[in-house]
Amino acid sequence: MNKKISSDKNKSSLQIFGRVSGLGITFALITCIGGFIGYKADIIFNVKPIFTCLGTACGFILALISIYLIIKKDIL
């Protein structure tokens, strides 16, 4: 366990910035993809705000799960 802590101290600030910005981009991209799929479903089924809201909410939940799994994999 001490080896993991000492290896974390050796990470440069650029590596940490890269990982954090990657998490932000992942979160935004997954949420936007969900919203876009919902928007296209609204056009197909002609019910304007319903599927856009559902797609954005599902994208948000999937983004949270994805971020959690990335962080869990990185820490353990």
UniProtKB/TrEMBL annotation:
Keyword line: Membrane, Transmembrane, Transmembrane helix
Pfam families given in the database record: ATPase_gene1
Superkingdom, natural source: Bacteria
Transmembrane segments: 20-37, 49-71
InterPro entries membership: ATPase_put (IPR032820)
Stated name of the protein: F0F1-type ATP synthase assembly protein I
Organism of origin: Pectinatus brassicae
